[in-house]
Amino acid sequence: MTTTLFLQSEIQDPYSLYQKMLYQNPIYWDEENELWALYSYDGCVTILNSSVAYIPEINPDNEQGLNSSALQIALQLARLSNGIHHDIAREVAMFLFSNMNVMTTNKILKELLKKGENGPALDWVNSVCKQLPVVVVLKSFDFNDKDSLFITENIEQLTKIMIPNKTQEQIEFINRIAKKIYSLVEKQLINSGLGNSLVDILSKKHQIGAEKVMSLLVSNLIGLLIQSYDAGRGLLSNALLQILNKDLAHLELSNESDWIQRIVIETLRFDPPIHTTRRVAVEDIVLNKVVVKKGDKILLVLASANRDANQFLNPQVFDTNRNNNGSHLTFGIGGHECLAKHFSVRLATDVLQYLFEKHKSIALLDDKIEYESLSNARLPKNILISIE
Ligand code: HEM
């Protein structure tokens, strides 16, 4: 195991490692992986705000052999693009986002809980977290039940489109599923007429034709589904774990929504679903007298920055009353800042509020939590709970 690119499945407490690095080596050159790892809040903020730190290419010259549908999606995602391509893709993603119908999560949660019941135990991750955020996005774009089912059943494999080092098996699955998901999403966007108004705006501003706008819309709606699946799943998991592990549920719920929202926000700082993101320097960048050279790779350890004592008082303490918890870096900042940050906090708050309102006794059945073998995200594989 190296200190920077370990798998979250292989480490019980990544935070003690981050604490050590923050203290000894906040800007660390990892010789083995040939990258800079940034552990400090200031370092991460500087790079996130830098106009010369780009999102790295994950599949240069299509060396991974993605087919045309998969490649079309990957190349047009706001999350993976830079410069003018990013400006346009982000505009498209924001347009889609602002056209989502508002959904109440209660009914969806109730159905998922019912479906997931298995005797006294329920696996919160598989029954709720992996489904609910994606179902909410699908429903808010009016997908029918059949298409929604197909997409929710296959989205997990498609999320691998975002990772740099894919296995052959992952590539084959992406290639198998991308065309079908692309065509389902395209059909839904055509039926809803969403593309037309955007064609006018974008073709005037950037000289883009209708076909290209449609393909940007399809790719970025798929992007919203991918982001909901991974990160949305993690936030719902980690926030529930904080409540159950710390036995916070017994607290007086006089102002429930606010209380739960504060737990969700502090979870984003203290135990975030996303731990790292990446950049590459396209010019020399000076960071605390260290020169990050043009072409150097940079790993931003956001989860470590969230525990930086220069930013947060007693950072190792889960404290919902700290007044700057919301300045965590879990959603990124700058040009690529997550456009769904308020949506994600609201969603997790609503779900947990409903859960604790309807069920007065919720307990963790197994406190040994295993994590997915991912390096950038800390996502519990299962959380077994009893609900009464
Ligand atoms: C707790 C949940 C979430 C977390 C922690 C999260 C985190 C992030 C982070 C860290 C970034 C920026 C990456 C970077 O700068 O390198 C990002 C970008 C993005 N997120 Fe989220 N996200 C969450 C939920 C969502 C959801 C639910 C959606 C969609 C419905 C979404 C859509 C996006 C998009 C489209 C971008 C790309 C923005 C751009 O590059 O301009 N996120 N997210």
TrEMBL record:
For whether the record's keyword set contains RNA-binding, the answer is no
Per UniProt, the keywords (alphabetical) are: Heme, Iron, Metal-binding, Monooxygenase, Oxidoreductase
Pfam families linked: p450
Please state which protein family the record places this protein in: Belongs to the cytochrome P450 family.
What is the protein's given name? Cytochrome P450
Can you name the source organism? Flavobacterium taihuense
